[in-house]
């Protein structure tokens, strides 16, 4: 049997692979975390992906983002990552949205049915609205908390937001989501205290600083998120058979 997903099927089973092929996962944010989440999804046989990011590839992305190559600098991240996905699995069905998610344009991002959402965006207001929207519509969502200024990928874990510590983004999210009546949501986070960094570039409007980042912390986090989505969808396939 010459099937590129054979080794995956050996662990998850034929029913799960069929479910993955029929599943549609949206990934919001294609940076260091999101690009590696997409890698896990497409290599696991997810049949349909919506890739969302408004940015283009820059030289400072080369240290950690899968779509970032010298040959892709200047390209939209959606286009660059889509080319990689198609090279991995030519049969994957892709939808590309080169835009920034926000509440004002929410419906532009929900024209299709999603079986799962991976939230790898880093703007608090957008994360809050995306999580609230997913909960309201009954779509499973897994959100990345801060991976910048961290050194140790072994500290990363997937848990409930209420159990997070030592993460400034998670602290803000807990407070703001509680005000919206959401006490529980699944997140990837690290309890590692942020390392001291030296600012080398001016922060964009609305941000106080630019977080430093390595290849392996956001990369490991993204693979974990993609893997969690795949296993969750596979578990549901098994439950449907029972």
Based on CA inertia axes, which overall geometry fits?
globular
The counted number of beta strands is 7
Question: From the alpha-carbon coordinates, what is the Rg to the nearest angstrom?
Answer: 17 Å
Number of alpha- plus pi-helical segments: 7
Query: Proportion of β residues?
Result: 5-15%
N-to-C SSE series? HHEHEHEEHEEHEH
* Adjacency order of strands in the biggest sheet: 3-2-1-4-5-7-6
Would you kindly provide a written description of the structure presented here, covering whatever features stand out?
α3 links the parallel β1 and β2 (48-52). The protein contains seven helices and seven strands, in the order ααβαβαββαββαβα. It is globular, with a radius of gyration of 17 Å. It has helices at residues 6-12, 14-22, 32-43, 77-88, 124-137, 168-179, 216-241; strands at residues 24-28, 48-52, 93-97, 116-119, 141-144, 157-160, 186-189. The protein has a seven-stranded mixed β-sheet with strand order 3-2-1-4-5-7-6, with helices on both faces. The mean pLDDT is 94. By secondary structure, it is α/β, with parallel strands linked by helices.
Task: Based on the model shown, name its key terms.
242 residues; alpha/beta; seven-stranded mixed β-sheet; 7 strands; globular
List the helices and strands and how they pair.
Blueprint: H1 6-12, H2 14-22, E1 24-28, H3 32-43, E2 48-52, H4 77-88, E3 93-97, E4 116-119, H5 124-137, E5 141-144, E6 157-160, H6 168-179, E7 186-189, H7 216-241
Parallel strand pairs: 1-2, 1-4, 2-3, 4-5, 5-7
Antiparallel strand pairs: 6-7
Helix pairs in contact: 1-2, 2-7, 3-7, 5-6
């Amino acid at each position: 049997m010459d099937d590129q997903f054979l080794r995956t099927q050996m662990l998850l089973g034929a029913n799960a692979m069929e479910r993955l092929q029929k599943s549609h996962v949206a990934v919001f944010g294609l940076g260091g975390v999101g690009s590696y989440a997409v890698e896990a999804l497409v290599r696991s046989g997810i049949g349909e992906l919506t890739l969302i990011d408004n940015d283009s590839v820059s030289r400072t992305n080369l240290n950690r983002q899968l779509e970032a190559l010298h040959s892709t600098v200047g390209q939209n991240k959606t286009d660059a990552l889509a080319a990689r996905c198609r090279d991995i699995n030519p049969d994957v069905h892709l939808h590309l949205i080169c835009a920034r998610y926000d509440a004002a344009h929410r419906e532009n991002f929900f024209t299709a049915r999603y079986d799962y959402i991976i939230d790898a965006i880093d703007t608090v207001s957008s994360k809050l609205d995306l999580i609230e929207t997913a909960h309201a519509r009954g779509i499973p969502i897994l959100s990345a908390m801060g991976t910048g200024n961290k050194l140790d990928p072994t500290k990363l874990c997937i848990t409930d937001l209420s159990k997070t510590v030592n993460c400034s983004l998670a602290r803000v999210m807990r407070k703001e989501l509680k005000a919206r009546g959401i006490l529980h949501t699944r997140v990837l986070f690290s309890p590692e205290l942020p390392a001291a960094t030296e600012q080398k570039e001016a922060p964009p409007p609305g941000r106080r600083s630019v977080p430093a980042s390595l290849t392996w912390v956001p990369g490991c986090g993204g693979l974990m998120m993609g893997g969690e989505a795949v296993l969750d969808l596979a578990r549901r396939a098994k439950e449907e058979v029972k």
